[in-house]
Structures are given as structure tokens and as C-alpha cells.
Amino acid sequence: MRARSPSVRRAVQHPARIVPIAFLCAIAVGTLLLALPVSRQGPDGAPLITALFTATSAVCVTGLVGVDTPTYWSDFGHGVILALIQVGGFGIMTMATLLSVLVSRRLGLRGRLIAQAETRTLALGDVRAVLGRIAVAILACETAVAVLLAARFWIGYDYPLGRALWYGLFHAVSAFNNAGFALYTDNLIGFVGDAWICLPIAAAVIVGGIGFPVLMELRREWRQPAAWSVHTRITVWGTLVLLVAGFGVMLGFEWGNPGTYGPLGVAEKILAAFFQGTMPRTAGFNNADYGAMSLETITATNVLMFIGGGSAGTAGGIKVTTFFLLAYVIWSEVKGESDVVVGRRRITDEAQRQALTVALLGVGVITAGTMALIYFTDHLRYDQALFESISAFATVGLSMNITHTLPEPAQLVLVALMFVGRVGTITVASALALRGRPRLYRYPKERPIVG
Question: 95 to each of 125, 226, 297, 430, how far by Cα in Å?
Fold first, then answer.
């Protein structure tokens, strides 16, 4: 057999192809396992579309479910889902981090993201150390949250110790990986006023979604914000802005809503608003019925879901850095400045074009997905289809209680959106950066009329 040429091997091994292939393999294995009779409660195995939908949602750490997770799947099925969440979350972080290293090396920006988060001289030979630190960070956070949750289930709700440990572990892993899977039919609505459940889960969502490069840089230089990289500055301050915005939206628009937070006390309303305001970034836990929320809350949630969390983490969306970088671009254009400056650092034209490309591709994918959902489903309103599409693309997992009512073609649309949303942004960003090369000639300028 004729050996492959070096160019063909490089094309196959290109990170922009490795990432989606790896995720497809994980989804395929998860689908086969969930389709086994042992994975479902009852004598028969799950239908292929149900197994595929759940496996995709778990590997892409989304949280959308077409069936009731606690009653439909067996203990073995729950274990498979948990393993898929962990593999998806760990794989996303490691692959995104390694791609950052590779991109930095290719572009001559040694240390822009991962290098600045670890050491000032990190090279590809330090990959093992990077992966080790990622694993330690994941296990440490998940263990701490699991212990807190298990103690609460055991002491506060009289769960048997074994069940308390399992529930604590499952929800800790689901939270840190921003998955949103829960072992309760109503998700976490039953714990809306329990701070010992809500706060650890919210903390895990924030830490997991902020991104590994930022976590490592904060670990070293959290007392010196002036020394932070541009990426860390945008991510940290942008995350705080979005958390405050989410809290304000939930508290303001749902305060008197009788279907959500209206019947709660003041302290419970504040806790519930903080918890739910965190979830659009991008974990699918919910402590209230989104089908009963106001249109204002749904609209604001759409925006928060689309933005998502930090790069090289477990969150989805177009990412905080992409959104706020574009905001800086707009602000600079409004002020008539030729350079986009963040923290006394000039942002390259390549980074601006990449951010614009990722954002506009996201808009295009969501628009196509919304139209497809409406086409395949005759009972969906536009706001429901849009919410479901953004939730799937941004790998959030929130729903207005319509996922289980969708026909199979519509569920396949959501499968595609979850896959593209989780893998696509990483792939597109890395492909754009890795394909960047200098051009030896330039065409004459011409300025079209804009606006």
C-alpha cells in the first residue's frame, strides 16, 4: 500500500480536524453504551436517537435532555453519562489548552495564553506538566464540591451515605464541567432556597467556565492585576460584569413572578437570582421553570447564553473574550481611534478578524438552527425555537420545557447544534490562527460605503 505523503499526514493530523474527530468518537461510544438494555430502566434498550441525543449532550457538556434522566436511565446509564461528562469536560480543556500552546508557538506568541498561565518559557515539551496541572485542578474542585454536596444530602436530607456520596459526586462533576445534568426530575427546583446546595454548584460552574489559562495565571498573580495578561483581564472583568448582569436580570424581572420567585422570601429570592443568573454561562441547571419566566428574562438569558464563558474552559458560547474584544473594537471605532487598545496593549488585526468571524458564524448557525426547528416542529413559537437553538449551540442546556416534545428531526438539529457549538468555535479559532501566513503582495485600497 502506498504510504501517505507528508502533506496528507499533516492535513489529517491538523488540530482543526483532530478535535471534531475525537468528539465524534466519544459520542459514538457513548451512544452505543446508552443504547444497551442495561443502561435503561426496563427490559428494552433506549432508541438510537435517544441514546445519540443524550450522549451528545453529555460529551458536549450541554445538559439538554429528551427524557427524564433519573427515571429513564439506570444506575449504569447514569454512570455512563457521568463518564461522558468528565471525558468531554477534560477533553475540551486539554485540547483547547494544547491548541492555545500550538497556536502561540506557530504565531511566535510564546506565552500569550497557556505560557503566561504556567511559566514564561513554556514550550511543547512541557505538555505533560500542563495536562497534570489541568487534571489536578479538575479533581481538586470536583472533590471539594462533591464533599460539600454529599455532606448536605447526608445530614440535611437523610440520604443514606452511599446515595449521598453518589449524588454529591454526580452533581459536582456536572457542575464543574458546566453540563447541567441532574438526578432530579425537576432539576434543582426543589433546592431553590438551599444555599448549601446552590452556592457550591454555582461556584463550580464559575470556576470550570472561567478557563484553565486564567485559573493558572490567577493562582500565580492574583494579587497583581496590573501584571495580568490581556486575556485574563478581559475574562475576569467580563465574567464579573456578566454575573452581575445575570443576577440583576433574574432578581428584577422575576421578583414578583408568581410562577418563579414570587412566592419566595427575600433571602431566597436573592439566592435564587444569583444561582440562576450564573447558569447561562453555560450550565443547564435551573431552580425555576423557564417556561414560566417573563419574556424580558428569556431575552436577556439568550444574550448571556450566546456570550458564554471563558476560553479553554468547560463553558460554551462565543466566549467572553470574543464578545468584549468586539466591544472594544466598536468603542475604538466610535472614538475614531485606529488602534484597539486593552490595558495598554494593542490588539492585533488578526485577533479582531477572528473574533468577528467566530461571532458572525455563531449568529449564522443559530439562525439556521432556529429556522430548522420551526420547520420540523409545528407547535413551536419563535421565542421557544430561538431559546432552544441558542441553548444547544452555546452548550448551556436550559430549556423552556420543550425538548422532550420535539420530533426526531428536530432533535437531530439540536444534536448538530450542540456538536458545532462545542467543537466548532475551538476548531474555527485554531484553524484561522494556524492558517495565518504573510502575503507577499497587497491589492490597491478601496473603501465601500458602510451604513
Answer: 16, 29, 34, 11
DSSP-derived letter for residue 44 is S
Looking at the predicted structure, is the pLDDT value of residue 102 above 60? no
CB 343 within 8 A of CB 225: no
Distance CA 256, CA 165 (A): 36
Contact 359, 326 (CB under 8 A): yes
Do 322 and 361 meet the contact criterion of CB atoms below 8 Å apart? no
Sequence-ordered alpha helix ranges (H) in 279-406: 295-307, 320-334, 349-376, 382-393
Q: Is 312 helix (H, G, I), strand (E, B) or coil?
A: coil
Do 269 and 251 contact (CB within 8 A), yes or no? yes
End-to-end CA distance of the chain: give it in Å, rounded: 58
- Residue 275 sits at the vertex; the CA angle it makes with 271 and 280, to the nearest 5 degrees, is 155
Residue type, 93: M
Task: Determine the average pLDDT of the residues in 165-170.
Answer: 97
Give residue-wise pLDDT tens across range 280-309.
988 889 999 999 999 999 999 999 999 998
| CA distances for 289 relative to 42, 109, 166, 425, 438, angstroms | 29, 46, 26, 30, 52
**Which of 58, 216, 217, 200 has its CA nearest to residue 141?**
200
Q: Which long-range contacts (CB under 8 A, 24 or more apart) does 21-29 make?
A: 22/91, 22/95, 23/59, 23/60, 23/88, 23/91, 23/419, 23/422, 23/423, 24/419, 26/59, 26/84, 26/87, 26/88, 26/91, 27/52, 27/55, 27/56, 27/59, 27/60, 27/419
| Relative orientation angle of helices 320-334 and 230-254, to the nearest 10 degrees | 100
Question: Using CA of residue 431, residue 436, residue 442, residue 448, what is the dihedral sign?
Answer: positive
CA distance 97 to 161: 37
Phi-psi region of 108 (alpha: psi -120 to 50; beta: other; left: phi over 0): left
List, for residues 188-244, the tens digit of each pLDDT value: 999 999 999 999 999 999 998 888 778 888 887 777 887 788 888 999 999 999 999
- Tell me how far apart the alpha carbons of residues 168 and 279 are, in angstroms, rounded to a whole number: 18
